[in-house]
Every structure is written in C-alpha cells, then in structure tokens.
Amino acid sequence: MKLKEKVAIVTGAGTGIGRAIALAYAQEGAAVVLVGRTQETLAKVADEIGALGGEALVVRASVSKPPQVRRLVEEALARFGSINILVNNAGVFIYKGFLDLSLKDWDDTIDTNLKGIFLCCQAVLPGMVKQKQGNIINISSIHGKIGDANLAAHCASKFGVIGLTQALAREVIEHNINVNVICPGQVKSNWVDEPEALPTPLSTRLKPADVARVAVFLASPDSSIMTGSVIDVFGGTSVRIH
Question: Does residue 136 contact residue 168 with C-beta atoms inside 8 Å?
Fold first, then answer.
C-alpha cells in the first residue's frame, strides 16, 4: 500500500473527482478526512471507505469560510494526530456569458476555487512544516491553461490555482513539502460507479478514477522528486489521436 499510515484531507469529497480520490487513498491505506458541504453525500463515501476496511472522518465545512477551515483541521488533528496529504478539490462551476456574470457569481467562484485553497494550505502547513513532510495536491482544470467563452470566472480561478501552486512550491521546498497541481479535462462524473475494466480509448471522456490514480501517484513516494509540477490529465478532451 502506497499510503499506509498516512492521513489525507480531501475537500469536495462527496462526489466526482473528490470521491474517487478519497476512495483511492483509502484503498492505498490512508485514513481520509472527507470535507464538503453536504453531510449525506460525505456519509455515503465514509460508508464506502468503511466497507473497504478503511477509516474516514466526515467534516461538514465550506472551504471559503476561515473558521470552518480551522475547525476541520483541528478535528482532523484531534482524530489522527497529523496531516500528511491535502487535496484541494472543492470547487464551483458557473457557465455564463461575461456580461451576465454577477458580482456574487464572481465572488462565489473565486472564494471557493482559489481562496479556499489558500485557506486550507495556510491551515495545514504549520503542521507539515513542523513534521518536515507533506504533500499538497491542488485540482485546477483544463480551463486553468486554456481560456474559454462563458467561463471567465472559472478560468480566472483555475489559472490562479496554478500560479498559487508554483509559488507555494518554491516557498516550502526547504521543508520537504511537495506542492503539485492536476489539470483534468472534462470529466464524465456519472461514470464513477462503473466497475474498472480494461483501459478505455483516449477518445473517450475521462472518469474520476482516472484523475484519482494521478492523485495517488502525487501523494506517494513515487513522486517525491516532483514539486511545482502541473500535470495535465486531459484524455481526449484536448487532442484526438487518429
């Protein structure tokens, strides 16, 4: 098991990519702190982890609220004693033309997608610095590298995630803390419950489990030399192989 005896916080863990990462980490031996705003979906993921023989803690919290972020880290430390891995996956997606975007749309997107990562990193880093070890994995997007119409707020936040990741990686490298970012393409989240079978062609849409495998790699000793890296997991969403 690549993550045995590690403790991971996964935000946005109730559905989609977050759920897939949480389950993959549990399968690799990590205890997982499941963070999100919907208790029921988090509880279902916790039950799935329990069925795998793993251990999970559910913390209902919004990553855009500083008191709630501080509380989730306190609860994680009280339960497990340390935090080795942070996956900043929580996000919102608003598809609107630029002139139709409200200030609330903009603030909600930036607060969750970018400020939430800032707050979670600030909350876990003191412990990681003290223990001289840590892995932070931020989830950006194909739209963190390629701007698109009707996604101004989303693109601004996801481009920002990459800049934040690389700046932070340089700042904490002396403390043996790795900070990397995954940029998924368009993920077909309703495939999440399909059993894993043979690899699918690159022309098919990504599944959350495809992104989760990369997140396992970045949290494991296999990627110990990597920091500040931007990993594209686009599948067939940006290129077609003929």
Answer: yes
- For residue 238, being part of any structural domain is answered with no
pLDDT in tens, 184-218: 998 875 433 444 444 555 546 789 999 999 999 99
Determine the Cα–Cα distance for residues 217 and 199; give it in Å rounded to an integer.
18
Q: What is the dihedral of CA 217, 219, 222, 224, to 10 degrees?
A: 140
User: Which tokens go with 76?
Assistant: 């994680």
Q: Would you say residue 2 lies in a domain?
A: no
Tally of residues, the chain: 242
Domain that holds residue 78: 7-233
Candidates 104, 111, 155, 131; CA nearest to 5 is: 131
CA angle centred on 144, ends 16 and 38, rounded to 5°: 30
Q: Which residues face 182 on adjacent strands?
A: 139, 231
190: in domain? yes
Q: Which is more confidently placed, 40 or 204? A: 40
Task: Give the separation between CA 57 and CA 70, rounded to whole angstroms.
Answer: 15
- Backbone phi, then psi, for 132, in 5-degree steps? 55, 40
Per residue in 96-151, pLDDT (tens digit) is 999 999 999 999 999 999 999 999 999 999 999 999 999 999 999 999 999 999 99
Count of domains for the chain: 1
Burial of 229 (0-12, 13-18, 19+ CB in 10 A): middle
Q: Which two tokens stand for residue 53?
A: 């023989």
Q: How far, in Å, are 7, 52, 106, 151, 201 from residue 154 at the CA level? A: 30, 35, 8, 5, 28
Count of C-beta atoms within a 10 Å radius of residue 96: 15
